[in-house]
UniProtKB/TrEMBL annotation:
Keywords: Membrane, Transmembrane, Transmembrane helix
Keyword Membrane: yes
Protein name: Uncharacterized protein
Parts of the chain that traverse the membrane: 6-28, 40-58, 64-87
Lineage: Bacteria, Pseudomonadati, Verrucomicrobiota, Opitutia, Puniceicoccales
Length: 98
């Protein structure tokens, strides 16, 4: 059973890692290099990396499964950045008219 967990975990970690690296490449190209590039894939990289950590057959590894959600640009950081941009824009936020 351990070998199946190792293989599944490795596949998820590699795929999630690839998505996370591409999300950071999008950030660097769009915001640092000021090139017009693609958009980040929201939450996929962080969730897949989290599942890869959860499946690791290492005692206690699941305790660190939340870390990819903080490190992947397409997960929590993009939500915080989007919220900050939205809050910094002037204008009326409530579009409900009575």
């Amino acid at each position: 059973m351990d070998i199946i967990q190792w293989i599944a975990s490795a596949v998820l970690l590699l795929f999630g890692g690839y998505i996370a690296v591409m999300n950071w490449a999008v950030f660097v190209n769009n915001h640092v290099l000021k090139k017009q590039w693609a958009s980040a894939i929201p939450f996929i990289g962080g969730f897949v990396l989290t599942m890869g950590i959860v499946l690791l057959p290492i005692t206690g590894s699941w305790k660190y499964a939340w870390i990819p959600l903080l490190l992947d640009w397409g997960s929590v950081p993009v939500v915080i950045a989007s919220l900050a941009c939205w809050l910094s824009q002037p204008g009326e936020r409530n579009t409900d008219k009575d």
